[in-house]
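HOLO CASE FILE
Compound: iron/sulfur cluster
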Amino acid sequence: MPIVRTLPGTVPAWQETVSREDLRNLCLGQKERGARLVSLWGSDEGEETFVLHLALAVQEGLCWVRVPLPARDPTYPALDDVFANANRLQRATHDLLGLLAQGAADGRPWLRHDAWPPDRFPLRKGEGGEAYPPRVREPYPFVTVSGQGVHEIPVGPVHAGVIEPGHFRFSVVGERVLRLDTQLGYTHKGIEKRAESLAPAELIHLAGRVSGDSTVAGAWATAQALESILGRQIPERAEWLRALWLERERLVNHLGDLGYLCNDVGLSAGFSLFWALKETALRTHESLVGHRYLRDQIQLGGVVRALTASDCQSLREECVTLEKEVYRLRDLLQEHAGVQDRYLGTGRVPPELAARLGLVGLAGRASAQAWDLRVSCPTPPYAQAEVRMATRTQGDVAARVAVRFDEIFESLRLIHHFVEHLPSGPSHWDDSPPLCAGIGVGWVEGWRGEVFVALEMGARGQVRRWHPEDVSMSNWPVLEHAVQGNIVPDFPLINKSFNLSYSGQDG
Amino acid sequence: MANILSEILRHGLRSESFSWPQADLDTWQQALWQRFGRALVIRHVDAGSCNGCELEIHALNAPQYNLTGLGLRFSASPRHADLLLVTGPVSRHMEEALRRTYAALPEPRWVVAVGDCGHDGGCFGESYACLGGVRRVIPVDVVVVGCPPTPLQLLEGIWRAVTSARDSTPRQPE
Ligand code: SF4
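Model generated. Tokens follow.
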């Protein structure tokens, strides 16, 4: 029988320890009951042991599975045949810590390119301290497709637009994509090593910079984990303000992406109209909290700035204007035959494929994967706000655009609700509780999808292990399927409709 | 089509004029014209940023900033560019790509390091995975700090770079 330990905090979560012999059975059983793999990572526990960790989303909440592994044989049975998204997670865990998934279908490195040798593992204790380990260059074995008329198009890491770096290898016949193989990891910054021994405030600061467009979600998830370790709730007003900022983050990101989704089909007027709205909303943030992207607004025990009544009023007014404007833009896109022609049926991920590959977040919802933490596993204040989840079944660019529009309107409703009924009281703890050792999780529905954080603090209140997981890690492989059979010029459009994070997945 | 036109007309011109101590719009445009006789062409490289700095570079394309009117243009290729805008602490996995992109820019070329990360690695610092700033890899003319720097701060940095008196001998990174 596994040992089960319930974790304190707002996220319903518990921890089970199982032996590696029982791991596969546990996963198969959970999968049978509908579980999904949220994250997989490892830790060096010293004293000749490693631990493999898994986070599974199940009906009742989040199950954190620990699997102790001996240092002389840090291997475990591969799980990529059970959970498709385990593939890259297993490879990343091997690159960083040397835990090997035996029997895995894909044994290529993932996060390690040439910055450290294959027999060095930066996340092991005592490793990674030396500034620059020797470089070892080995070519990445891309998947190739052979046949008459097949050729390859290599793209990246530096792309034509202002976007993050990554390498895409297209195998094409004429204009049609037969296969896409992606190599990410270019922005690997070693954040998990960096986090070790940080104090709570510094950790939250770093957490807001894992993926720059999800700063509220990242900081909130990490703060949630810290607060659960300290065993204290934050004031009600603080919960509401965090949710308010999370919805504002969703709003501005959706506005910007919809602009680019116009741009990518040649509708530059649409781009300008959406970006004019986004810029206005960013300036509102600047005037309310002093930062256009709401960075560093979340602190341990609450939020930095309490809003005044007139702040709330201006937010409410902005909601009304934005709602009108976005409705007009939605009609504009819907009536535009050229736009619809490019969107409909493009980059399709049918629901069955999405379920098999574990697609989640906004892209998942566009392929009928009805999961939104704000609805499926709500923490305050979402439980009271009765969020309406946006879903579609077509799974194409048009569906992802439709989900974004729905989510904008829902976020506007929520923002209105939050400022209208904002509870009174403090917006942060007025003392700092004594730091203590412990483990905790954070789980927040960012604009792109869930942001998960697993945290272990040491006795002196410093980080022992912090593992953030952006939904991008699980969703990137699905993009490779979404482009199959599409034409190369549609790739930017399909890519943008997902808009996955490179930095968030590279760590 | 009519809908798009009426929407554009309804919104009207959104571009704003701005100025900072050293320059206003006219001086800026004159300086660019004198120096380049055409638009200033910019190439961006993300050398391991968190994507926050990119958000602000994108924001420069919002109609409020009227980038094209200002005489600035982003290029898909470094070979057409005058200025390289580099974000991020320079992850070691991007070092080679950054060097090669810089090498592809024709002389004279300018480099603006963007953000606290581009300056000295910011919160990511220097580690097994990060080099701790753009100047570790290529010569930098101007640093625009901030996390991320705002569009106006970016414009000011670009302005400082192209108006700075500088001899044109090729330089070494620090
Ligand atoms: S300076 Fe800030 S916004 Fe820019 S890349 Fe670094 S952490 Fe991100």
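CASE NOTES: The two ends of chain B are 54 Å apart (CA to CA). Chain B has a mean pLDDT of 90.
CLOSED: yes
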